[in-house]
Specification:
This protein is an alpha+beta fold. The protein contains 4 helices and 6 strands, in the order H-E-E-E-E-H-H-E-E-H.
Length: 113
């Protein structure tokens, strides 16, 4: 896993969209678009919601969030999502995007099966 730098190198205004484009290339993810968001499913289960406003929600599951609570809170970019199984992540620069993509890999594993 790459070491994440906390120095902020701003991405374009569409940084969430840039990450979404990368995720469309992941073979385990299926993309769908709604009026308000881009959503990704893994094996039929929605695990990512991206609204385009520099935030995304990720299904990590409550047990994993509980285990990683301190680490997630220390990032200052991860906050509780719309329910206990989800987290909300601010994606404002390259380091945030790398962290989010790493957490997507974790979400794929924890939601497998």
């Amino acid at each position: 896993m790459a070491v994440l730098s906390r120095t902020h190198v701003p991405l374009s205004a569409g940084c969430v969209a840039d990450v979404a484009v990368q995720l469309t290339r992941w073979p385990d993810l299926a993309v769908s678009h709604t009026r308000k968001a881009i959503r990704f499913r893994a094996r039929g289960r929605e695990i990512i919601r991206m609204s385009g406003d520099h935030t995304a929600e990720l299904l990590l599951t409550a047990p994993l969030i509980d285990r990683w609570a301190r680490v997630l809170a220390n990032s200052h970019r991860v906050t509780p999502g719309h329910n206990t199984d989800w987290v909300r992540i601010e994606i404002e620069d390259r380091a945030d995007a790398e962290m989010f993509l790493s957490l997507v890999s974790v979400a794929l594993k924890v939601n497998d099966g």
